[in-house]
Amino acid sequence: MLYGRTTEQERLTQLVAAARAGCSGALLVRGEAGIGKTALLDWLAETAAQPDPEHGDDGRELRILRVTGIEPEADLAFGGLVQLLWPVQSRLDALPEPQAAALRAVLGTGVEQRGPDRFLTGLAVLTVLADLAEDGPLLCLVDDAQWLDQATAEALLFAARRLAAEGVAMVLAGRDDGFSAPGIPELRLNRLGFEDSSRLLADRGRAPALRSQIITESAGNPLALIEFDSARRDQPHQHAPLPVADRVFSAFRSQIGRLPERTRLMMLVAAAEARGDLPLLLRASELLGVDLGDLEEAERSGLMYVMDGTVTFRHPLIASATYQGSVLARRIAVHRALAEAAVDPDCRARHLLAITTAPDQDVALELAEAAARARGRTAYAAASGLFRHAARISTEQETRAAWLTEAATLALAGGHAAQADRLAEEADPLQDDPAVGATIASVRAAVVFELGDQSEAAHGLLARVGDAATPETSGMLRTAAAYGWLAGDEDTVRAAGARLAAGGCSDPLVEGLERLCEDDAEHGLPLLAGFLERRLDAPDIRDVDEQAVRMLALTCGTILGDDEAALDLASTEVRWCRSQGIIGELPYALDVLAQNQVLAGRHRDAEASVTEAEEIARDTGMRQRLARLAAVRARIAAIEGDTQRVRELAEATPEALCTGVDCAGVLLDLGLGDFDSALNRLTPPPPGPDRYIWLSLSTAADQVEAAVRLGQPERAEEALRHFENWAAAGARPRTSATTTPWAQAVVLRCKALLTDQPEHYAQALHLHEKGGRPFERARTELLYGEWLRRARRRNEAREMLRSALTTFERLQAEPWMRRARAELQASGDHLVTARMLADNLIDRLTPQELQVVRLAKDGSSSREIAAQLFLSPRTVEHHLYKAYPKLGVGSRQELVLLDL
């Protein structure tokens, strides 16, 4: 029976009732040791298993999966996930193959390979849970979450955040510290009040006269109430002015100390083994001269249970008290016996680590092998820890350096930048291999980059390289140039290029970036175009290249202004990441995709891409990516005239990353008629590489228009010169498929504004017909329409203005719509005031509904869509169910007929 938990029980009952009705949810129960988390989960498991017609029970049996974190196994990769999924491993065959392979590796039933992405396992867990829920509602209980190994915790939390319409309820229980679950609702358990504490003691037969004393000593902690009540029966005059947790722990140690020595030894074996694996316990105990019968006294006293082939402590604190209350020599003897008796090599490695108190190369090699197995299952945090332990007991300096370096690399891959930096710093003085040194430098630079300072990351790499590149350092210099470019640090780009050239190492990509830093678009853009062309010719080739350079490769199309190529390359990258479950790389690919969707006038698609990228970036700790995604949202908000949204995004974006948001601010000011503010925001133009970001390239036209409106055209001369040089370089014949007709059209529009010569508008519109950037075409039409009206060529003006208005309406560009309507009215088109905004089907959908509908329209099944969008099939069906009535259709077949 539970006391004082009525509110909490109702909350959990509602969660399970929602799962029975097909709605998923997750909840984290927090509280101190002994507060009753496990008791609440036990109650939920018992009551949820019973039919519940009142809360939507449809007669299908509710399945319960349960896992308990084990403190000694916190470094054992996927130990918790094995415990959770072992009973349902037969369901793996129904998973998409990359997911099935990932879980088979976790469970040890498949081939271990170095996985491409640690979050693929989380996606596979989500799919398994959803698949199980197809048979009936599912309750997943996770106890002592603070002791889960990190790989298991990441996979479970990844799945929990994406539960939606599967019929899965997940409840995690953890202590106040040691377990972080951002994005998961929390339920905090408080200590019991006097009345509930009194009822608990009364039901245990405690006389009223002594209840107040016990309640005061326990401070309302349920476990303390029970244990102090028992202690008062045995030692009625005991006083212990310690914190509650310490007193409970002390009470357990005292109780254990009164047991026979053989019982204490057998309990120590169970505590050190931790998993309750009875066969292993029996093999190890035989080596120590004890057996299962020696646990009888522990069972009689209620400290332990032996049932269904498992040995369990009544409370985790009992296991801790058993282990910590034993002397070191006895603990070492027990771990040695467990290591000798272990069949699982990972289990053996864990126990060997516990007994190693001095350098031991043989044990270090076993730990390194265990680390390699964890790495193969993408348990990067666990693998990093094992390599670190192996290095610290290794007797060979070269091996120590290599293992610490690998530990640092894996810590970075696992999202632990600060730990990676500490490990790399520890490895640095030990290494004398240039390749290892290069890796260390790359890790430390990547840490600095992740923490937000790309320029410092580039400088860190340059500092490790001499005056001339070598085969070992050329990759570092390429990465340094990429970091420098992304940071807007042209000096670093030049320095990297100079050292590559001094070493005779040709790198067209770096050379192209150098040229652009000199504002030499004529020679720089063709070099980048050649690089881009090679990528387009072989889009499925994935270079084992530096992350920054891969990021830059996706950006090349935008730097070149080749929207079609950039969109194609980004779409290909997104599809590949989805098909392989490579979630860690997906946010950047989605970012570039969203940028080009905005340029193509596909705002709702861009919002869907950004929404997904933000969700994954939050899950994976990509703070830089979250900030950069703001530029896409700001551009859309600026076009739509949402002043408040642009301001909020500017305030939330770090100053070092604010160029993109500032460019959006220029466009917003221009649309709203605040020409002075528009001109002042980016005057002079952004320095160095920032001149070539996707927004800066077209901001020159905004500045020209604002300057002309203010009667100060000279203030935009530098921006126009840069833009014209860039557009001219993009128009030069070359082998690349890159073309920039939209850019040449915008240059002509700017010239028309500056010279008031209408033939430039006509030439610009001819180029716009070749495609690209509908918003820019509509702006050209608007300006030409204004000129035609002023020239009293009203019929021609109305034709131009109506075309512009149609595009502005489709883009929901409110300020520009107002301008176009005002011009139409001035030209004599009085019907325009009665026109309504076109009813755009995709505007009715949420970003995720739009993604699902688009894929369904293309013929993808629910399971295929789920695998691509990192959702469950049931959630995909839920989104389709919600989208159909919004679109006025009733089936997938009808989606094909819609223009989406």
From TrEMBL:
| Entries under SMART domains matching the protein | HTH_LUXR (SM00421)
HTH luxR-type domain: residues covered: 838-900
Which keywords has UniProt assigned to this entry?
A: ATP-binding, Nucleotide-binding
The family database entries (PROSITE patterns) matched by this protein are listed as: HTH_LUXR_2
Q: Which InterPro entries match?
A: AAA_16, P-loop_NTPase, Sig_transdc_resp-reg_C-effctor, Tscrpt_reg_LuxR_C, WH-like_DNA-bd_sf
Cited SUPFAM superfamilies: C-terminal effector domain of the bipartite response regulators (SSF46894), P-loop containing nucleoside triphosphate hydrolases (SSF52540)
UniProt xrefs under Gene3D superfamilies: Winged helix-like DNA-binding domain superfamily/Winged helix DNA-binding domain
* Key word Protease present: no
Q: Which PANTHER family match?
A: TESTICULAR SOLUBLE ADENYLYL CYCLASE, TRANSCRIPTIONAL ACTIVATOR DOMAIN
Name of this chain's protein: AAA family ATPase
